[in-house]
Amino acid sequence: MAQSNIIIENKPGEENAIEFMNENAKPAANILKKYLDRSFSNPFIIKSNSGNSEKTTATIHLTITNSKNKKDKNSFSIKSDDTIIYLDAANEKLLRYAVYTLLENWGFRKFTSKDLYIPKLNRVIFPKNTTQIHNPSFEYRVLFYPDAFDEDFRDWHKLDWHLDDFSIWGHSFHILLPAKEFFKTNPEFFALYEGKRRPESLCMTNETVVNTVIKKMTQIITDNPKASFISVSQNDDAVYCECDKCKSLNEKHGGPQGSLYFFLNKIAKHFPKTKIATLAYQHTFKAPTNLKIQSNIYTLFCPIELNRGKSIQNDTENKPFIKILQNWGKTASNLYLWDYTVQFSNYLSPFPNIHTFSDNYKLFKKNNVKGLFVQGYADVPGDFSELRQYLLAKLLWDTEIDIEATTDDFLRGFYGNAASSIKEYLNLLSKNQENSNRTLDIYSGPIQSRNTFLSPKAMVQYDQLLEEASMSVNEDPILYSRIKKLRLALEYVFFEQSKYYGKEQHGMFIVNANGEKEVKPSLTERVSKFAEACNEFGIYELSEDGLSPDQYYQNWLEITKNTATHLGEKLEINILTPSSTEYSGKGSAGLVDGITGHTDYNINWIGWYGNNPEIEIITKNLDFNLIKMHFLDNQRSWIFLPQKITIFGYKNKKWNLITEKKFANLIENYEVKSSEIEIVDKSFSTFEKIKLVVQNQEDLPNWRKRKNKKPMVMIDEIELYNK
């Protein structure tokens, strides 16, 4: 070993040195000394290359080359001769990358921004006369996870930071040409969509729009001289311009992306030294055809609708997507990709997609993706956020890492003796999801997965594994706390599914001796403790919508009151018009179970998409005169109150019109709420059956008009009373 390696030993009386070759390399030298001194009992000396003849046993040289070569702008080298280790990089940031890479080679780890592993070393080794050139798999690497907000964590893991690099990030038309400022006076600046000017997007062929946007960009670029990128991107909407000029370009170049890149090319020519970023998203998802994209345009491809439970190349349903990716790889000279890696509707729900990361990133690299924005929980420490961000950071730098070995290394370091149980838990989540062969969606949740990887049987297995993990580290408060955080995911699933199951097995309610529903003993207290624990761990939001743990608990308290004891609970009910497959709830029984819906359309609600529900209740001349129906009002999700309800009664072998109730025209309103509608008629009790015909909205209101969208009506409880 002595013949083939440089050996730096931790011996008192022997001085090991870190030498910085130029002044701007000194901060990186200090970082290296700080970590090595925590590992070695014998501290390193630090010195400049000033002709100092002070003798040292071993030396590590740090040099900033100031190279202008494009090949060196994102790489660094770690080299050696017979006696010295050399860290060379073109700038200070890359030299820090070299320092952290050397430290990792010697066993140091930075698991999170606060959790470091510092080995106690007697010596370290490095091979003699070698050169290691470190190049990233992707030139731009952004990780939007909690610890990436910390600069030291980003440097250790060689990450960029979009909030520093972009003067405007993401959707930006509303910034570059605000509708509030221009729409009333200049509607022609905005998209002509389905025959009307709409403020959600711009007219891509209006020269005044181009000039106005250029003027605004000039000011923004001037105000942000350090930013490399500016985003010129469609708003988070599906509206685009269909005026004659835009339509002609769209037909010529393969869709709405045609007029967009026509517009972007004009702007890019005006700012040749600025990186113009744009989103390939929704209607601009596909690459334009027969159109050359300017070299300073950076396309951020956003594949939002994928099955996250399988790697892209292993899902036969993804062949069309892979073709789109390949087309972008050939069309865009600067192709970046926005990767969605968590479940945005449920930050704490288990989401078994970690096993897909490695294959997916190899696929992206193979298809000319040069940069990645990896969206996670932002600054919220969601389920397995620590492991996710660690593995993703490693893959962003090198897609060829041994993902299993890297995972095992993290689990041992972060969970200690619980590592094997946690690994088994992870593997079982993935196995159960894969065996179900069901799509895993970023906007799904525990209720949709109740029959797949989050079945009651699977939940028992997960609970046992995390209990084993807890017991194995119960004398270590730090490790025990980390397992406690993982257990929050199972608690969350249990609570969500218990809302769905209602008074059934696994539900939140039991029926007492008086036939009334009441919450199971201690369950509400358990939810309260869950909310407290979330706050302790800094989990201040449970979803992208911003639901806080305290709000979650308050919602739970409201749901505990959403019960009714009415005459229709044991009646036979038939849904004559099939509901939407994905919003079928618990079927007809869920409409008369005595539990009314809250505001989450995943729980209990049954939805009809673009059609009119007809529901039959076998009343058998039941003595009642009041019908209460509950409808969900959630315009942002295209769920609206009905236009009309018509009620028929059946006797003497024919249906008779009893009554109808019409409702006022819709008013734009984005508050999500459950609306109760009452219909009274003394003749209800004279019929064998009652049929409810609910007329859905015939068309979307103007403020929610979208192509290929239809109105949905959602119903939960139908209550019958005699009052």
Q: Can you put this structure into words, describing what you see?
A:
The structure is a single chain. By secondary structure, this protein is an alpha/beta fold. The chain contains 18 helices and 29 strands. The strands form eight sheets. It has a six-stranded mixed β-sheet, with helices on one face. It has a six-stranded parallel β-sheet with strand order 11-18-17-16-15-14. A hairpin with a 5-residue loop joins strand 19 (509-511) and strand 20. Helix 14 packs antiparallel against helix 15 (456-472) and helix 15 (456-472) packs antiparallel against helix 16 (477-501).
Structure described in brief:
The chain is α/β, with parallel strands linked by helices.
Helix content estimate:
25-40%
Structural class: alpha/beta
Biggest β-sheet, characterized? 6 strands, mixed
Count of helical stretches: 18
Alpha-carbon distance between the termini? 93 Å
Poorly predicted regions are: none
**What strand order characterises the main sheet?**
3-2-4-6-5-10
Radius of gyration: 31 Å
Q: Round the mean pLDDT to the nearest integer and report it.
A: 95
Q: Number of DSSP strands?
A: 29
Strand content: 15-25%
Shape: globular
